[in-house]
Amino acid sequence: MRGHSGTAIIVWLDDRVLAVRHSYKPGLRLPGGGVKPREDHRLAAIRELREETGVIVAPADAIEVVAYSGKYGKRSVFEVHLDTEPELTVDNREIVYAGFELPEAVIEHNHFVNNYLRKHVLPSMAA
């Protein structure tokens, strides 16, 4: 798996994030997945979001917020903010649930992503 790059996308709706549940692993995760060879990470995040939830966003709206390299390759995380809740669709094979949840409900096994989620939501929670 060395060199396998990945991407994820944080979709904000007010103080909630779009989370998905996979059929093959527990917990709620951010939409995302692998980056194909020579594929742009931003476009891969947008592709994965569309494949997993049916949500379509413009590339210009997806801003990179976290990027890091590990033993398995580069991982990039983007975010986008929505004004209205979109209609969500899942395939009920790979993805069995998609919905907007509080950030603390999302399981990400990376402290960069977890820290970003927690820092982003704290100011709005205090208001």
What is the domain total for the residues?
1
Query: What is the first-to-last residue Cα distance?
Result: 44 Å
Number of strands: 7
In the predicted model, the low-confidence regions spanning at least 5 consecutive residues are 122-127
Label the CATH architecture: Alpha-Beta Complex
Residue fraction in strands? 35-45%
* Total helical elements: 2
Helix-strand sequence: EEEEHEEEH
Please identify which CATH superfamily we are dealing with: Nucleoside Triphosphate Pyrophosphohydrolase
User: What is the CATH domain class?
Assistant: Alpha Beta
**Main sheet: strands, sense, barrel:** 7 strands, mixed
Find the CATH topology. Nucleoside Triphosphate Pyrophosphohydrolase
| Shape call | globular
Summing up helix and strand content along with how strands pair, one would put the structural category as alpha+beta
Query: Whole-number radius of gyration?
Result: 14 Å
- In which range does the helix fraction lie? 10-25%
Average pLDDT reading: 89
Write the layout of secondary structure elements.
Layout: E1 6-13, E2 16-22, E3 28-29, E4 32-34, H1 41-53, E5 63-70, E6 73-82, E7 95-101, H2 111-126
Parallel strand pairs: 1-6
Antiparallel strand pairs: 1-2, 1-4, 2-3, 2-7, 5-6
